[in-house]
Amino acid sequence: MGEGAPQFVRAEPKRAPQVSRSIDAELRAVAGISEELHIPMGEVREIYRQQLDRLAAGARIQSFLGVLATRNTRSFLRDSCKANESG
């Protein structure tokens, strides 16, 4: 390129804020379920990650995986609590 010609630098996509948001959302979801169902956060997080991984394996669109994983985790843990109470 000649002197004085503009030089363009290819920008790398910024991923840190998106990752940070997804971690924050996961922590909020896990904490909410933990408080609601009176189950330790570690146990809730383990189930949440299992649900998220299961959903992500077949997902073409990733946008709502956190919402679906939260719903599935809550449902799974509620059903487990009911089974423990009756049996």
Using the alpha-carbon principal axes, give the shape.
Answer: elongated
Compute the number of helices.
3
Strand percent estimate: under 5%
Mean pLDDT: 86
Helix and strand element order: HHH
Count of DSSP E strands? 0
Alpha-beta classification: mainly alpha
What is the CA-CA span between the terminal residues?
Answer: 77 Å
Specify the biggest β-sheet: none
Q: State the helicity in percent bands.
A: over 70%
Structure summary:
With 87 residues, the protein is mainly α. The chain is built from 3 helices and no strands.
Question: What does it look like?
Answer:
This protein is 71% helix and 0% strand. It is built from 3 helices and no strands. The chain has a domain at 41-87. It is elongated.
Please name the defining characteristics of this protein:
single chain, about 90 residues, mainly alpha, 3 helices, about 70% helix, elongated
List the helices and strands and how they pair.
Blueprint: H1 16-37, H2 41-58, H3 65-86
Helix pairs in contact: 1-2, 1-3, 2-3
